[in-house]
Design a protein that fits this description.
The protein is 22% helix and 33% strand. It has 196 residues and is α/β, with parallel strands linked by helices. Strands 2-1-3-4-14-13-12-9 form an eight-stranded mixed sheet.
Length: 196
C-alpha cells in the first residue's frame, strides 16, 4: 500500500489516479499509517509546508530510516532537503543533503519555470531506469535543489540554470517535476517507484 501524504497544501487526487493507472494501490492519509511506500506531494511555499507537516515529521523520518521507499514530488522533493531560502529560511526534513535556492531571475526567462522541459540523465537506476535523454516532463517551480552530493542527482534539466530534476539517496527519491502530469513518461516513473 502506498500512502499519499495529505498535509493540506498538495495535489492529491491526480497522483492517486496516476498510481492506480500503473497498477498501484494508494490511500490518501494525514499520517504514514501502515504504508510500505510513501509519496510526499506538494504545491506551495516551503515553510508553510513544513509547518503543516510538523505533526508527522518524526514519523516521516522514521519511515525513511526503516528503508522503505519515499518519493517527494515538486515541493515534496524540496522538503526532502535540509533547508530552503524561500521567503527567508526554513529547515526541511533533512533526508537529502543540500538546500533549495531560487532560480536566477536575471536570465530573461520567466519565473516560475512552468511547462515542459527535457531531462538529461546521469543514472538509470530505479525510477530513472528506461529514461532517455531529451524526453520531456512537466515543471512548475521557482526554486530548485542544490545537492551537496553530485551522486544523488539522477537527472537534470536546464531553465535559468542547470538543476537537479530527479534525485535519489538510498530509498529516498525525488522529482522536481510532476510525473502525474507528464504523460506516459511520468507514469513509467511512478510504476518504477512501485516496483523498487
Amino acid at each position: 500500500m502506498i500512502t499519499i501524504l495529505d498535509y493540506g497544501i498538495n495535489n492529491l487526487h491526480s497522483i492517486s489516479r496516476a498510481v492506480a493507472l500503473v497498477g498501484g494501490e494508494a490511500e490518501i492519509r494525514t499520517d504514514v499509517g501502515s504504508a510500505d511506500r510513501l509519496i510526499i506531494p506538494g504545491v506551495g511555499a516551503f515553510a508553510k509546508a513544513m509547518s503543516a507537516l510538523s505533526p508527522v515529521v518524526d514519523e516521516i523520518r522514521a519511515f525513511a530510516k526503516s528503508g522503505k521507499p519515499v518519493m517527494g514530488i515538486c515541493l515534496g522533493m524540496q522538503l526532502l532537503f535540509e533547508e530552503s531560502e524561500e521567503l527567508g529560511f526554513a529547515n526541511g526534513l533533512g533526508l537529502l543533503k543540500g538546500s533549495i535556492k531560487y532560480l536566477p531571475k536575471d536570465t530573461g526567462l520567466k519565473i516560475p519555470h512552468m511547462g515542459w522541459s527535457p531531462l538529461t540523465y546521469r543514472s538509470h537506476e530505479g525510477i530513472a531506469s528506461e529514461g532517455v535523454d531529451g524526453e520531456q516532463v512537466y515543471f512548475v517551480h521557482s526554486l530548485a535543489a542544490v545537492c551537496a552530493t553530485d551522486e544523488d542527482i539522477l537527472a537534470t534539466a536546464d531553465y535559468a540554470r542547470e538543476f537537479p530534476a530527479m534525485v535519489r539517496n538510498g530509498n529516498v527519491w525525488g522529482t522536481q517535476f510532476h510525473p502525474e502530469k507528464s504523460g506516459a513518461i511520468g507514469l513509467r516513473m511512478l510504476r518504477k517507484f512501485i516496483e523498487c
